[in-house]
Every structure is written in C-alpha cells, then in structure tokens.
C-alpha cells in the first residue's frame, strides 16, 4: 500500500461534471434548431420571442451550463482545495436543467406567467447553489490566487444577472419598476456578458492557457489590472445607466473594457511566445483565436454608441452584437476548451492508474480531431453567413447560415458522445 | 534531474522504469518532467519511499500519476511496499524539465 502525505485525485467527481457537458451539448443543438426555425425573426427588431428564446438557450443552456460544469472540475485546481460540496453541484444541475427549458419555452411562446417565473426562479436557485460552492471552495483554499478571485467575482455577477432577469420577468406581467422591462435589458445583458462570461473566461483562461501551452510566462500584476479594468468598466456602466447624463458617456466603460481585452490578448500572446511545447493543437488554436474575437462585440458597441446621439440605432447592429457574442467568442472558447477538458475527465475515469507508456491512449485521442476540424469549419462558415444574412436582411441567407450552425452542433454532439462513450480496451 | 537517493544502483533501475510513467496531457515521462525528488530504498529491499511533486497542487491527473509510479515500482522490484510522499516544497517549475524533455517538447 502506498501512503501519501497529500491527498490527490478525489477533489471532485466526474459524475457531477459530465451531466453539465452533456446538457450543454444538447442545448447548443436546440439553440441552432431554434435559430433555423426562427431565421426570419432576425430581419426585424431584436426584442422578439424567438430571439429571446435563442439567446437564453445559448447564454444559459450552452454557455452557463458548460462553464458551471467545467468550474466544478477546475475550481479545485484554481483554489488548490477540494470542491466544497458535490451535493450542491448536483442540486445546481437539476434546478438549472429544469429551469432553463421552462424559461426558454416561456420566451418562445411569450407566456411570461408561471413558466417564466418558475423557470427563472429555479435558475436563480441553481445559481445560488453554484455561488455557495464557488465561495466555499475558493475561500477554503489559496485566497491570494488571482484566478480564484476572478471566479468568485464572476459568480456574484452571474447571480446579479439572474436576479435582474427574474425581476424583469415579473415586471412584464406585474410592473413594479419605474420603466418597462425592455429599458433594463442592456443592464441585464451586460452584467451577464461582461460580469459573468468575460470575467470567468479570462480568469480561468489565464490559468489554463499557460498550463496547456506549457508556458513559462506569468504576470499576476497584469491579470489584476485586467480584473480591475473589467469590473471598473462594468461598475461605471451601471453608474451611467442610473445617473444622467449617462448615455453621453457610454463610450467610457466600453473603452475601459476594450483596453482590458487588449491587455488579455497581450497576456495570451506572451504565453504563446514563451511556450516550451512548440506544437499547438487545433483546440488550443481555436481557444487562442477566441481571445482575439473578444474584441468584436465591444467594437460593435462603440459603433452603436457613436450612432446613439443621432437617436436611431439600426437593429441589425444590435443583432450582430448579440450574435457575435454568443455564437461568436462564447462558442469559440467552448468549442476549443470542450475537447481540451472533456477528454481529460473521461480519461481520468477510465485510465485511472494506467499512465504507463503504451497502456492507455492520450486524453486528446478520445476526441475525433477530424470531426473537430469539420465542426469548426461549419461553425465559422455558418456564423459568417448568418451575420451576412442579418446585414442584408435576407431570410434564405439566414437559413443557410443557421443550417450550417445546426450541422456544426450535430457534429459537436457526435464528438462529445464519442468521448463520453469511450470504452477502455483494457476492460 | 537531481534525484536524491541512498542507493545509486537501485535508483538508476527505478528511474529507468519510471520513464514509462507519462504525464497524460504532455506525453512526457515523470522523470524528464522533474517530478521525482527523492528515492529511498530500505536495506532489506522490502520498501521504497518516493518523494515527488506534481506540476500543480490538486492536479486532476495527480492520482493517475502517483498510482502509476507505485504500480511501476512494484512491478520492477517484485512487490515491495511503496510509500509516496507528495511535496510542493520546492514547487515544481519548468526549470526542472530535463534537456531530453525540452528537446521532446520542442519537436
């Protein structure tokens, strides 16, 4: 028997992580099918039932579910501590898995009564469980860790975004806010996009990118600067939103976030330049490319803000902004990181003590590389065609783009399924 | 590699065997990665004490790697008791990768 002074391995369990990945893959497929079915909605205003349904399927079912799942695996690594509660992670999954389809159904049919309220409430409860788990894991570990601080802050912003969203749902049917819910949508959306997605992706990415590249580069001070810029930008946005003459200065928080993104791009470049491992696989390439794509949505926002004083913002700009966020960089980073992290989790389950040469495949071999390449090609082509369709307001072009995205989602699901059902030849 | 030992001959045999234990992500063995700090053999030949590290505390692959180190040593030395002590003092750094390891990674 071996004795170990430090415990390893059982920091979390694959049983709680894998359902999040599986659910997210199905949500991606559902979102693309909804997109195909509702393509014509993208020729009009952005506030439409079908667009709300697609957006929330992407933001919650796809982005949030997979990030929450991966967080349950990565938090112990970030915090150098065990996952606070596996049971809470299960509860979080079940509540979110029930709440998301209810909310999406409510948006799609625009019945903002009980399905939206119950769905939204279940999602808020799921996120509360998640926040407790993040907080418990990170505060019990290495508290000075910048990546851990990113994760805690992002989870708090997520909770705030969810609470705001639920308030807007209630405000639709029983108005209690000074203005209609539509007026508060930018608030809800940007707390979610910048506070949750952006902060968590940068916090976790800045740990994983040098780890996977085997890079010597570290720059904690730069990561703190980026952290304060993003949070400062978001807080400035909230301040401007509620206090006049807010919109005249709307470019300020956007510029602050753009500076943060340029600095993060510089951080990724330095990690890449100082890498020890020369070969960079296609999954890392797409993940690094997504860091560059981060600049597209705020770039579009600058155009929106520049147009605002004229009093009329073309809805196409806002549609492209939303699409480039959820189908663009959020999807890009998930496509890349799914096939970096998922094979590891499955490999760890199957080849537990078989790391000797020739006894087990490399984790990367569990996913199909060719299938991944075709998936990325279909996603990229579909996204570009769909954006062209939004710009020219042509339904056939939108349908063509959406069909390619459905193909990308099917291929992605196929590859995820291959990894999940991989069997150890030794057994 | 700088592995401390109380038995040079046994250590050479053990390190040769441990070159078969790979970090699954990197594909490089634990010896060239510099994860092994110390190998002590008791005089009766019935026990091996390994002091090693991981590239990061709470490494998700930690159990796989330490399990394989134990398994390989048991197979090589015909079933002694293997004690693995994980330490993060000093923490692992890229400077611990051997020249052969650096050449492997730069391919």
Give a written overview of the molecule.
- The complex is a heterodimer of chains A (427) and B (107).
- Chain A has one domain (14-352, 360-420): Cytochrome c oxidase-like, subunit I domain (Cytochrome C Oxidase, Chain A), CATH 1.20.210.10.
- Chain A starts with 13 loop residues before the first helix and ends in a 7-residue tail after the last helix.
- By secondary structure, chain A is mainly α.
- Chain A has 13 helices and no strands.
- Chain A has helices at 14-37, 49-79, 86-109, 114-139, 146-173, 181-213, 220-242, 251-273, 282-293, 296-307, 315-350, 369-392, 395-420.
- With 107 residues, chain B is α/β, with parallel strands linked by helices.
- Chain B has one domain (4-105): 2-Layer Sandwich (GMP Synthetase, Chain A, domain 3).
- Chain B is built from 4 helices and 4 strands.
- A 4-stranded mixed sheet of chain B has the order 1-2-3-4.
- In chain B, β2 (36-41) and β3 (47-52) form a beta hairpin.
- In chain B, α1 (8-18) crosses α3.
- Chain B is globular.
- The two termini of chain B are 20 Å apart.
- The mean pLDDT of chain B is 86.
- Classes of the chains: A mainly alpha (427), B alpha/beta (107).
- At the A-B interface, α2 and α11 of A face α3 and β4 of B.
